[in-house]
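Deliverable D2.4 — example input (structure tokens):
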């Protein structure tokens, strides 16, 4: 039975003897996500189900490994900007599943389609929250490798808007030489994984990756949120990959003249082709972007003061505009600074749980007792 029909057939059914599957939220490459209610507690959950393909041993192994990877990552990382997982199990129909928090909101991709480019304050808030989530997984020695609007959900409005990072099926351990064999097999060296518009140059080339590949993807997201589209586009995957490798991003301020040089420089640093020239940490990107946005606020205050002939602060406002901090935003000095960045050294990564799903479930249940 095709996956879509199998997913639709589960709606309205009792799953794993306790979850009533109320509706189908969406389907991915190897499973489906349902809105569900626990019949014992009446609490709401999102149930992600893996559909094992019959008579396709290689596909079964690959899909199960992707599922295990997501379960492993979510069990290791607890963060307010990462979707929570409450249970890992296998249903009475022999279907592996995750019981996760149900988030009422919309995908970032849907928000971009319906609302267009975002305001600068909203961009800064979203990138700040995403950077904190990405930093949390990096601190566990894991990279996401598939940061894109379809894997990000936003809930709430205005000041209460919250961002959650989803889908860790492509997450990968990057620290040390003792990665589990099942992880090495799934992501063999030289293979390319990710979504083409958001992949780093080194990801396009199938090179060994570290956390800076996610920082590049954060830069792509920031660019897209300000302009409504990613910087590198084309009709064929190979053409987009070549742009990632060789082409500079189109000038950001050509599309957003309200954006300052400081904002553009902050994003361009995340989009450096050489990983050594990017921010060493995701939070460094967020902090730089936040500081650049403050300059925009200061300049707006300057203009307001200058436009008011009765303003008592015209002299001090002009002084702000010619301060040493503003003068230092010189491109040559900025490029020199990039060359001096050193890679951050991290603590050794704890061993990732073994590949058997039953062992993973045991680990998760013991940890959460």
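Example output (designed residues):
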């Amino acid at each position: 039975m095709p996956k879509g029909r199998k997913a639709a057939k589960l709606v309205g059914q009792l799953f794993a003897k306790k979850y009533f599957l109320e509706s189908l939220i969406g389907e991915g490459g190897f499973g489906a996500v349902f809105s569900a209610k626990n019949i014992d507690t009446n609490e709401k959950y999102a149930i992600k189900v893996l559909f094992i393909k019959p008579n396709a041993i290689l596909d079964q192994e690959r899909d199960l490994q992707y599922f295990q990877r997501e379960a492993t990552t979510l069990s290791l990382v607890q963060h307010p900007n990462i979707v929570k997982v409450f249970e890992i199990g296998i249903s009475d129909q022999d279907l592996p599943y995750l019981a996760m928090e149900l988030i009422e909101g919309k995908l970032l991709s849907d928000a971009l389609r319906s609302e267009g480019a975002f305001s600068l304050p909203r961009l800064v808030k979203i990138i700040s929250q995403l950077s904190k989530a990405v930093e949390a997984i990096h601190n566990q020695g894991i990279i996401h490798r598939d940061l894109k609007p379809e894997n990000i959900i936003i809930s709430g409005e205005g000041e209460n808007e919250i961002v959650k990072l989803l889908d860790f099926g492509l997450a990968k351990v990057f620290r040390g030489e003792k990665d589990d064999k099942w992880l090495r097999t799934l992501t063999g060296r030289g293979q390319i994984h990710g979504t083409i518009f958001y992949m780093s140059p080194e990801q396009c080339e199938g090179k060994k990756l570290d956390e800076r590949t996610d920082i590049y993807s954060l830069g792509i997201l920031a660019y897209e949120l300000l302009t409504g589209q990613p910087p590198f586009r084309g009709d064929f995957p190979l053409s987009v990959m070549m742009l990632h490798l060789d082409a500079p991003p189109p000038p950001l301020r050509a599309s957003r003249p309200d954006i300052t040089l400081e904002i553009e420089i902050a994003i361009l640093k995340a989009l450096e082709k050489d990983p050594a020239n990017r921010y060493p940490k995701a939070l460094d990107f967020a902090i730089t972007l936040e500081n650049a946005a403050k300059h925009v606020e200061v300049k707006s205050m300057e203009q307001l003061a200058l436009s008011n002939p009765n303003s008592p602060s015209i002299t001090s406002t002009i002084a702000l505009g010619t301060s040493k901090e503003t003068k230092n935003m010189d491109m040559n000095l900025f490029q020199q600074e990039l060359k001096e960045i050193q890679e951050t050294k991290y603590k050794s990564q704890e061993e990732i749980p073994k590949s058997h799903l039953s062992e993973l479930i045991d680990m998760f249940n013991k940890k959460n007792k």
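The domain at 3-102 is CATH 3.30.200.20 (Phosphorylase Kinase; domain 1).
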